[in-house]
Amino acid sequence: MRSALLACLAACSLMPAALAHHSFSAEFDANKPVMLTGTVTSVDWRNPHVWFYVDVKEDGGSAANWGFELASPNLLLRNGWTPASMKVGDVVKVDAYRAKSGSNLANAYGVTLTATGKTLFTGSSSGKDL
Question: Could you give the CA distance from residue 1 to residue 68 in angstroms, rounded to a whole number?
């Protein structure tokens, strides 16, 4: 009885993480691709996804900050990334699918460092990767 209770408690402790994760189609729209170029302002290496943020110049000259979702830190590391692969100040071209909410968030499926032309693995949950 006690071991069954402990097993139940252990299983319940994992539920918030499982419920917090989402499918690609729940948050992003594969029919709304965007291609943006801008300067990296931050890179956030946290589970369940790495996010990076880019200032993109708008038509009027002001900058809009965009957030882009990548794969998990573990998947990126296993595919050659290090936290130094993309740094604040790097200029990047990003191919992504926009958030359904219309906000400046997107799921990146292609990231290219413009200084070197190197394309970085994204592990996009869309199933597409350049």
Answer: 47
pLDDT digits (tens, 9 = 90+) for 24-62: 777 899 999 999 999 999 999 999 999 999 999 988 889
End-to-end CA distance of the chain: 52
Spatial separation of the C-alpha atoms in residues 104 and 102, rounded to whole Å = 7
**Locate tokens 């926009």: which residue?**
98
pTM score of the predicted model: 0.80
- CA distances to 48, 77, 96 from 71, rounded to whole Å, are 8, 10, 13
Q: How many residues are present in the chain?
A: 130
Rounded (5°) CA angle 11-23-96? 145
C-alpha span between 78 and 81 (Å, rounded): 7
Tell me the Cα Rg of the chain.
Answer: 17
Q: Evaluate if residue 7 carries a pLDDT over 70.
A: no
Query: Which tokens sit at 68?
Result: 């882009």
